[in-house]
């Protein structure tokens, strides 16, 4: 028997390939499904089942395309939701044979109504692993407030109560040596504080996971699980609907999005249509020169999450500017979160635009050393675009917190006639912020190179110039 976790860092997402006696199952596949087909082919196995732990919100699953290409049925746990494709709706504790191994569906509502874990039983009948989806993470549990954005009567309080019961009655009674394989790790917005580990034993989670404390009452659990939840990214409900109703063939999406546009075609397209230019290059390169109106969302960061958070219309037409050779990757990662309307990329990249003599923009930046002088000698306006929790932990005195994920609110406090110095943790989010704001007419934003990390490492600021509420009490 073989179990392989296929982890995708930009989504903090784990898909799983399970195989026994030439039969394979895939749990929660990503949209680019050829990787699973290739893996099965290399091992001379056939994909027999596609198991979905729930209707995902943070990415578009590959279940529809994988079923179309392999003929394997798509399996969900108990649900009354009508899907736009054929699906096998399992009942609680239904067992599926995979060679001499077995996979048991365990209905565990709470994150969503249909949330289901899959228990892997090996050839000898021993329970080996539990694939928990978004019900149980390492160090955390799934947030219960997402389904209400699709079904209004499913309040967070109702689902939190269901989650408590599912954990206590369905998961915690299982063997302590069972390996827990969750659908997400640290960085996912599907929980509040996920651990960095990608698997653990159930026994260790009972000792270390706050939500599995033995003396925790349901009322206490509901209060703790709902405390501090921030609104989910706007694209979550749209991804849920795509996962329920189906979506366009990903091969067609990639073919359309990877159409090469010469610089004149590209110029006509962005000027004649409501097309957004997404520049996926590294922020340190982008800031030196870019096409006016471009948004910089670098591939080497949480690309999909920020695309889904900031581009409000999931049907927005998009053209790509990227490093040579990363065009397909850019379109693929857009499609992972349902942005299927990429209509091409600039052939030759930004250099082609620059060599064509077209107008370019840049984002001015300042070194930590020069910023330190300004900060000490005269008052400057400072924007901290990190999350509120990061800001509350530590920030430069006098900075205004304008989190990137609430950029519309940030725009309300910025005076277009004033100059602002902006920072985040390391420069990725501040460049996204600056590029989006510049495309909307905010010209006087200067990026502090390296953000908080560089500021602290430079030792040009005394620690007293940072506020850390937890140490000041």
From TrEMBL:
Which lineage is the organism of this entry classified under, starting from the top rank? Bacteria, Pseudomonadati, Bacteroidota, Cytophagia, Cytophagales
UniProt KW keywords: Metal-binding
One GO BP annotation of this record: glutathione metabolic process
Q: What highest taxon heads this organism's lineage?
A: Bacteria
Kindly indicate whether the keyword Iron-sulfur belongs to this entry.
no
- Record's protein name: Glyoxylase, beta-lactamase superfamily II
InterPro entries according to UniProt:
Metallo-B-lactamas, Mito_Persulfide_Diox, POD-like_MBL-fold, Rhodanese-like_dom, Rhodanese-like_dom_sf, RibonucZ/Hydroxyglut_hydro
* UniProt KW Coiled coil keyword: no
Q: Which GO terms describe its molecular function?
A: metal ion binding; sulfur dioxygenase activity
Q: Which residues form the Rhodanese domain?
A: 271-362, 376-460
Q: Name one Pfam family in it.
A: Lactamase_B
Q: Which SUPFAM superfamilies match?
A: Metallo-hydrolase/oxidoreductase (SSF56281), Rhodanese/Cell cycle control phosphatase (SSF52821)
| Database matches in Gene3D superfamilies | Rhodanese-like domain, Ribonuclease Z/Hydroxyacylglutathione hydrolase-like
């Amino acid at each position: 028997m073989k179990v392989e976790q296929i982890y995708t860092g930009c989504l903090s997402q784990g898909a799983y390939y399970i195989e026994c006696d030439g039969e394979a199952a895939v749990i929660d596949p990503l949209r680019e499904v050829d990787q699973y087909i290739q893996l099965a082919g290399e091992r001379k196995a056939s994909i027999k089942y596609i198991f979905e732990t729930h209707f995902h919100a943070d990415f578009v699953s590959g279940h529809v395309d994988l079923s179309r290409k392999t003929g394997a049925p798509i399996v969900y746990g108990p649900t009354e939701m009508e899907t736009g494709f054929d699906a096998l709706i399992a009942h609680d504790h239904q067992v599926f044979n995979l060679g001499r191994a077995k996979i048991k569906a365990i209905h565990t509502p709470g994150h969503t109504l249909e949330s289901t874990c899959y228990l892997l039983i090996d050839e000898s009948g021993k329970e080996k692993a539990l694939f928990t989806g978004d019900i149980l993470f390492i160090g955390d549990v799934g947030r219960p407030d997402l389904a209400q954005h699709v079904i209004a009567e499913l309040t967070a309080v109702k689902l939190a109560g269901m989650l408590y019961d599912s954990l206590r009655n369905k998961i915690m009674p299982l063997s302590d040596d069972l390996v827990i394989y969750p659908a997400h790790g640290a960085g996912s917005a599907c929980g509040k504080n996920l651990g960095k580990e990608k698997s653990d034993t159930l026994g260790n989670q009972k000792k270390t996971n706050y939500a599995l404390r033995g003396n925790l009452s349901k009322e206490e659990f509901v209060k703790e699980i709902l405390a501090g939840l921030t609104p989910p990214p706007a694209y979550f409900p749209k991804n849920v609907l795509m996962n329920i109703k189906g979506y366009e063939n990903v091969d067609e999406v990639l073919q359309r999005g990877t159409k090469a546009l010469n610089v004149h075609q590209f110029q006509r397209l962005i000027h004649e249509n409501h097309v957004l230019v997404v520049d996926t290059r590294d922020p340190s390169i982008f800031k030196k020169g870019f096409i006016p109106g471009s948004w910089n969302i670098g591939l080497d960061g949480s690309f999909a999450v920020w695309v889904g958070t900031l581009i409000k219309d999931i049907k927005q037409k998009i053209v790509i500017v990227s490093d040579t050779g990363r065009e397909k990757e850019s379109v693929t990662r857009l499609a992972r979160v349902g942005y299927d309307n990429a209509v091409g990329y600039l052939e030759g990249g930004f250099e082609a635009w620059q060599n064509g003599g077209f107008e370019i923009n840049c984002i001015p930046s300042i070194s930590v050393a020069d910023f330190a002088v300004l900060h000490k000698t005269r008052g400057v306006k400072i924007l901290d675009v990190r999350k509120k929790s990061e800001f509350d932990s530590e920030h430069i005195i006098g900075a205004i917190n304008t989190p990137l994920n609430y950029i519309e609110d940030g725009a309300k406090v910025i005076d277009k006639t004033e100059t602002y110095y902006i920072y985040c943790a390391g420069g990725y989010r501040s460049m996204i912020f600056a590029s989006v704001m510049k495309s909307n007419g905010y010209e006087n934003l200067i990026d502090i190179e390296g953000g908080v990390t560089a500021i602290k490492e430079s030792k040009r600021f005394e620690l007293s110039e940072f506020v850390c509420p937890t140490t000041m009490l």
